Amino acid sequence: MHTTTPLDALTARIGAVGSAVVAFSGGVDSSLVAAVAARALGERALAVTAVSSALATGELEGARAVAASVGIAHEAVDTAELAREGYRRNDRFRCYHCKSELYDRLDELAARRGYAAVLSGANADDIGDWRPGLRAAAEHGVRHPLLEAGLGKEAVRALARALAVPSAEKPASPCLASRVPYGTAVSAATLEQVDRAELALKRLGYRVLRVRHHGRLGRVQLAAEELVRAGDPGERAAVVAAVRAVGYDQVEIDEQPFRSGSLNLPITPVERNR
């Protein structure tokens, strides 16, 4: 007796839509959707990456490489979330305005090119976090095959490994605006400064990190194992210098390990190097 596996179920779910545009960041979630869409839909699947000031340096190139690896056609579209006042205002509904811009563009592309559905990489664990983008998705009729199949982050990574998806172990990399606390206006200049600071730290060899933007203060968060490295005086000085070099007058290195979504929680500065 054949037992239906999670991959079988996901493939059938995606195949049933007939043709689809995949909202594709190149992260593990959307990469798994793209990989399965390539298997289930073939040439009737298209991965599309949104390009704007909020996209970190290197992410588009990474998405292109993943798309090529999993065998799905790939395109990039420009989005203009900064033209939306609700996005620039940066209250706790910022992601709603960002995703509304994205899905407006993907809906337009899908309608013009004859694709039947727009798919996202939202997974079952996203239900437990603050995700106003899901409301925008609902308004646009976007499908979430991972969420619909009840697949959380660990199951997604396991399936991505099984399919040899290159981004199976890729750390989460949400848009650069996620580094700006709610209530602080988002601008192209702010996003560029955050991007340059994080790129400088990556060039020092740090991999899982965020630079939180607090005006003149850049607040560095590192993964637990990398935080140990930054405890060395020489390393600490290099981190501080790298972030100062892009225009932050003050640099703080958080004593607590990086936690995704931490700006959704109260944050207390813990260490400051002036």
Automatic annotation (TrEMBL):
PANTHER family assigned to the protein according to its UniProt record, in alphabetical order: EXSB FAMILY PROTEIN (PTHR43169), NAD_GMP SYNTHASE DOMAIN-CONTAINING PROTEIN (PTHR43169:SF2)
Pfam family, one: Asn_synthase
Record's protein name: ATP-dependent sacrificial sulfur transferase LarE
Domain of life: Bacteria
Domain Asparagine synthetase: 16-127
Gene Ontology molecular functions: transferase activity
InterPro entries: Asn_synthase (IPR001962), LarE (IPR005232), Ni-pincer_cofactor_biosynth (IPR052188), Rossmann-like_a/b/a_fold (IPR014729)
Protein keywords: Transferase
